[in-house]
Amino acid sequence: MATKLHTNTKLNAELTRGITVNPLLANVKLSKTIEVFATVKEMEAAGINVTSLCVGEPDFPPPRAVLDATIAAVEGGETRYTAVTGTAGLRSAIASDLKKRKGLEYADNEILVSNGAKQSVYQGILAFCGPGDEVLIPAPFWPSYPEMVALTGAKPVIVPTTIEDGFLVDPVKLEGYINENTKLMIFCNPSNPTGAVHSGALQEEIALVMKKHCQIAILSDEIYERLVYNDENPHVSFASIDGMFDRTLTVNGFSKAYAMTGMRLGYVAAPAALLKPCVTIQSQLTSCAGSLSQAGGLAALTKVSETEMEANVKIMKEKRDFVVSRLSAIEGLKYFVPDGAFYILPDVSAWLGGDDTEFCLALLKEKALALVPGSSFGADGTVRLSYATSMEELTVAMDKLEQFMEEKRTS
Ligand code: PMP
């Protein structure tokens, strides 16, 4: 049933009578991360100095080569529509990058450049799922996954993982959630919000389960693949696992590794037959990714040295180690040391009755420190810290968190 437009005193009820909201939206929530971010902005506008570990974007600027190429594109008049699928140069550079670093052999025309990985994820879901279909989503999950699935009319099926198992998918448990309606598995590796990295060996076990159910496509969101910190657990692309290439959509983007969040550039790579429906959808939703951003993306892949990339990873690893060492000093706090991404998801269920939203609100009010409640990631009783910020900010944040948790323990 369609819902009536909510009461808004600015609208003339008589003139808007009969306008209803798409019933699919009844099952879709506004992004919580964005909501918390908005509250932080409001507090800041009121003159309060808030420390925020909420937002998922690196604090460093994009590489100089990216900025230069973008400026050159402005000056050179690269301001027109490109092909829906992206410029030939960028598609080719993405295919080469995936081959070189991930061992994946995509043809240039098996790459679809988008306005960010977020768009690629949604298009991938929409291309294969609709009413009656089920989509496997391991939890804790990136909050957009279940909401995007709901927007297509399909049903999100949450597959829990535990902090004790390092938030890794258990292939045996996973199989218990599969039936003939299961059409897609969304696999986020490294994971937002846990930072867990699934090894090649574990992905092979997951693939064995998938092989028994050939109706399931896999959307592998690898946007954090560059940000991994354990040499013994390097990132392996799901599409490179035996038998999985033909059924996998590999999603990636330029927001995290190259700090190009505002430039809105991502892509999906998939065998032509899987890519085609995504191209059809994209051709009707957006004409193409921004031409200037595509020029920047091309420079990211062709002009930024591995040394520069490794330097950023090293800094991020230092931040992870710092946060972990500070968390280890808080008595009774459970957490899992992440191998990738830039998040950590400690379990605060022993504080404030285990309500993570109450925990975050009290922390925000009492210490002006903003974290995201784990319940928005399907991880009740946890909170997510993003350590992609400056060391100064991190130090202040960890001081505030430690103080808060000590106070709440004694009260
Ligand atoms: N996937 C995951 C898991 C993410 O965390 C994000 C960004 N928060 C995205 C996709 C979207 O990235 P983009 O900026 O490329 O749209």
From TrEMBL:
It comes from the Eukaryota. Pfam families: Aminotran_1_2 (PF00155). Gene3D superfamilies: Aspartate Aminotransferase, domain 1, Type I PLP-dependent aspartate aminotransferase-like (Major domain). Residues 49-401 form the Aminotransferase class I/classII large domain. Keywords: Aminotransferase, Pyridoxal phosphate, Transferase. The keyword Zinc does not apply. Its cofactor is pyridoxal 5'-phosphate. InterPro entries: Aminotransferase_I/II_large, AspAT/PAT-like, NHTrfase_class1_PyrdxlP-BS, PyrdxlP-dep_Trfase, PyrdxlP-dep_Trfase_major, PyrdxlP-dep_Trfase_small. One of its GO terms (biological process) is amino acid metabolic process. GO terms for molecular function: aspartate-prephenate aminotransferase activity; glutamate-prephenate aminotransferase activity; pyridoxal phosphate binding. The keyword Protein transport does not apply. Belongs to the class-I pyridoxal-phosphate-dependent aminotransferase family. This is Aminotransferase class I/classII large domain-containing protein.
